[in-house]
Amino acid sequence: TYRKNVQQMMQCLIRKLATLSQYEEVLAKISSTSTDRLTVLKTKPQSIQRDIITICNDPYTLAQQLTHIELERLNYIGPEEFVQAFVQKDPLDNDKSCYSERKKTRNLEAYVEWFNRLSYLVATEICMPVKKKHRARMIEYFIDVARECFNIGNFNSLMAIISGMNMSPVSRLKKTWAKVKTAKFDILEHQMDPSSNFYNYRTALRGAAQRSLTAHSSREK
């Protein structure tokens, strides 16, 4: 019986490792092609560059797609990566950690990189239009996307979007912001307020977890 159980565990582990290996290959490919794509985008005339609203004009749909990406990226992060990421340094040697062979935290790093890419995407999309009214429309669009992310319980994308909108190239567009109804944004920003060790965020997270536990359908969950 034990032999059978061990064999099943080994098969499950091998499948998981194979999937993880494929995922890491995909991450490496994304990373290597992103620079090439940026070069191609820069060479295109502005008249044929498409903004994100042209590609997906429904904030709820974009929020859903962002959540799919978040869940996929999160799914491949193992608890051991957090241990490796925050491992104590050897106080006698600044270059060496307490572990002789420090494992890679590739998937955790990819998740952080995804957060940064989403923030830069938001800032870029807002800054690209020449006219103030188009920039204001883009800001309002991302506010709606952020709100939908909050409703879904996708707090990581929500924080990335808010981070992108608070970047200096966006925040200094005073005349553009004057055309935006900022009440919804102020509420979302309040939820992500870092004061009291992110008290508002932790409260919202507990509420989302409770709603998930008491949900009647898998969609609500």
Automatic annotation (TrEMBL):
PANTHER family associated with the record: GUANINE NUCLEOTIDE EXCHANGE FACTOR (PTHR23113), RAS-GEF DOMAIN-CONTAINING FAMILY MEMBER 1B (PTHR23113:SF197)
PROSITE patterns assigned to the protein according to its UniProt record, in alphabetical order: RASGEF_CAT
Coiled-coil ranges (or none): none
Limits of the Ras-GEF domain: 58-221
Domain of life: Eukaryota
Alphabetically ordered keywords of this record: Guanine-nucleotide releasing factor
Name of the protein in its database record: Ras-GEF domain-containing member 1B
